[in-house]
Amino acid sequence: MLKQNLPVDDLIACHSCDLLHDRTTLGDGEKAWCSRCGSLLYRTNNNAIEMSLALTIASLLLFLFAHLLPFLSIDIDGNKSTIYLISTIDSLSQLDNILMVIAGALFLVVIPLGVLLLDLLLLSALYSNRRPLTLFARQLLLLIGRVAPWNMLEIFLLGVLVTIVKLASIAEITLHQGFWAFVALVMINLFVSTTLEPEELWQAIDKH
What we know:
This protein is α+β, with helices and mostly antiparallel strands. It has helices at about 50-70, 85-95, 100-130, 130-135, 135-145, 155-165, 175-195, 200-205; strands spanning about 10-15, 20, 30-35, 40-45, 70-75, 80-85, 170-175. Helix 1 runs antiparallel to helix 3 (about 100-130). The model has no long low-confidence stretch (mean pLDDT about 80).
């Protein structure tokens, strides 16, 4: 039951139905659920920052591998060509459409890399607990919240898979290391986004 005259910091609203709840202290691994709709309110994971930092470093490596290693090969009647992910931006430039080039560079390279670097900076600051870095943690988290929705690598992967299915009947397609690095990158990003709640980051920032 909601207590009267509680400080704002002691309250939490359900993200699904907006019902206010008293914030209670949880043990490691425990979760709090909305009493009205049953949605997850927040959870406690003492290793969340360390795990997310390790996965973010792995994502940066996979990002480099995905863009620099061969992505896939297409063989049509003996005419074989190997595609690199980074070369797709050069291919877009041949369409004489500057907006397509800018969009390709932003959504395929600049924004995903920027989000990863911001994540790395934020998590490193929280993990190291160095005061000069944690002073900017709130601004970093707010910036990540605004930029992250534009990180749509999973949409690009879905488009690649649809293209592969369509071309499979007329061409022999070979998937290379860059493709699998890209798949792993998307999977790790989805895992981190679903396991590390923003509420956990705000709590970690408040502790510092």
